[in-house]
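Sample A.
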Amino acid sequence: MDRLGDEVRKELGRFGPEGDIGRVVEAWPAAVGETIARNAWPARISRDGTLHVATRDSVWAFELGQQAGRIRERLGELAPPALRFAPGRIPEPGAAPEPVEPAKPHAEPDPEARKVAATLASEIGDEALRSLVERAIAASLARPADDRPL
């Protein structure tokens, strides 16, 4: 069985600095130590290469901002040109990833829903747009009322 890691890294490299987030996340705990890793976690890399780090609270953000140079040194070759710390969501140690709910099957619109959709979209002049709006309305009407967002 072939490993995909190298291929994935190659593809992510096409995105410039933003593509390095996986490597930074992998190196983060060893570079900053266990205590900081529990209270701050890499969130994203912006286009200009700045690493945005989510922290447990504003106190951590301030303290780590004071240590940005040292953290960059410890990240070595993965060091971004700048670090920005701000309070945000960080993963809990040992927490399992949040489960993803499977997509619900789409209900097919009945003839009545299609008729209502055609009536509501009938005044749209652009034929392609009118067709898209009709389909969207019909699909919305086909969903159960308790499944519709408010």
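Sample B, a different protein:
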Amino acid sequence: MNRDNLFKFYEKLYFHEIEMREKLNARIQIYLAIIAALFSLIAFILKNVTKLEFAGTGFSFIIILAVDIVFLFIAIYYFGVTPFV
């Protein structure tokens, strides 16, 4: 290979690696945003609890909190597994 062909080859490799890094960062940022949103929802809900009653609103509070915690664990699981697959 002469120098021009070698330079073009390295240029292609360089841009390919930059594209792969950008794709990886985009995938990671989506999961991080979901985790941050779910965690802030849990913090907001728990901060505004004054008295927990097992009436209609208390029961719905427990259900929403449990679903949010489950979704948080699912998001954390996929954050650890998916971006590197």
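Observation for Sample B: The chain has a mean pLDDT of 81.
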